[in-house]
Predict the structure.
Amino acid sequence: MSSLRTSRIRLAGAATTVVLAALSLTACSDGTGVHAESVAAATPTTAHASSPTPSAAAGASAATSAPAARATSGSQKSAGGTAASRTPAPAAKPVTCEGSTTKTVAAPLNRPVNHMLLTVTNTGSRTCYLYAYPAVRFGEAQSVPPVIEDSKPQAVVTLAPGESGYASVNLSATDGSGAHGRTVNSLYVYFHGRSGNESVGTGAHPPLPAKGVYVDDSLKVTYWQQSMDDAVNW
């Protein structure tokens, strides 16, 4: 009797264990037909798949860094190009003033009498030097008149583009003492080089008044001057 009772108690315990296990499985269901144990088992796999491996992360980092490096390099090159383009060009070397890069005007003066003013304006794009004095030829003269040595300036006359230099011409003696007086209707002006002994470039042919100008053997010129006042003082 005691053995039969013991067997029944064991069967009842086993049945209770089966029921509790079934209830536990039912309670773990999330209502979608998938048990919590299955979700929990799948979670590590899913998390592991979404995390990049070290090699993949390194590749992505390199891919991201490359365009940035290229952009930085391009910016530096662009900045360098901009800086280079802002560098001023070196100034052009000055040249000798001559007829093709200047304009010459000849104007008779009332004061001082029997004088003419020569004005040379730099029409070129580079600074030019007016060396020595104008070599002038009136009419059919075969030689140029002498220069007034005392009129020599301390420095070479320098003309920036648009600037003018001056020289005066003593056409004839004021007291009528000059010989071989005559009226001329044409004038040529030639320019000296650095040595002062030769003409350079092309000459100028400024017009004279329609009635011409009167000259004699006392004809002479001044050195080129930086200012008009210095030119007409001789």
Q: What stands out?
A: The radius of gyration is 54 Å.
